Amino acid sequence: MAPEKKKKQLTYKGKPIYRQGNRIYYGNLEDDLILVIDILESKNVYGRSISTKVAFYIQDNTGELGKGVNYRKGERDNLYKAFDMGSWWLQDALDMQKSAE
């Protein structure tokens, strides 16, 4: 029997990405804050689904996943812009949280 291959975790800027339908969770799930991205609209281009409207927000991760308080939110017209802005917001919020402790 062949040894089992480990699945590689998808990451962006060193933090893991988890997807559940049209919702994407970004960040370490052990941290108090995570980035949540909702794909609101998409279109089909050359057989691929491309997001055209994306909402993202920094969410409290101390309770049940996806049920926390939203601290900051925004909308962008594609996934890359949402990840770029949201990852910066998340890192800034985590840094402020660490400096407050």
Principal-axes shape call:
globular
What strand order characterises the main sheet? 1-2-3-4-5-6
How can the largest sheet be summarized? 6 strands, antiparallel
The N- and C-terminal alpha carbons lie at a distance of 51 Å
* DSSP summary, beta strand count: 6
List the helices and strands and how they pair.
Elements: E1 11-12, E2 15-20, E3 23-26, E4 33-45, E5 48-60, E6 70-76, H1 79-100
Antiparallel strand pairs: 1-2, 2-3, 3-4, 4-5, 5-6
Please provide a written account of the structure.
By secondary structure, the protein is α+β, with helices and mostly antiparallel strands. It has one domain (11-96). Helices cover 22% and strands 45% of the residues. The protein has one helix spanning 79-100, and strands spanning 11-12, 15-20, 23-26, 33-45, 48-60, 70-76. A six-stranded antiparallel β-sheet has the order 1-2-3-4-5-6, covered by helices on one side. The longest helix is centred in the C-terminal third of the chain and has 22 residues, at 79-100. It is globular. 20% of the residues are buried.
Defining traits:
101 residues, 6-stranded antiparallel β-sheet, alpha+beta
What is the compact description of this entry?
By secondary structure, the chain is an alpha+beta fold. It has one helix spanning 79-100; strands at residues 11-12, 15-20, 23-26, 33-45, 48-60, 70-76. The longest helix has 22 residues, at 79-100.
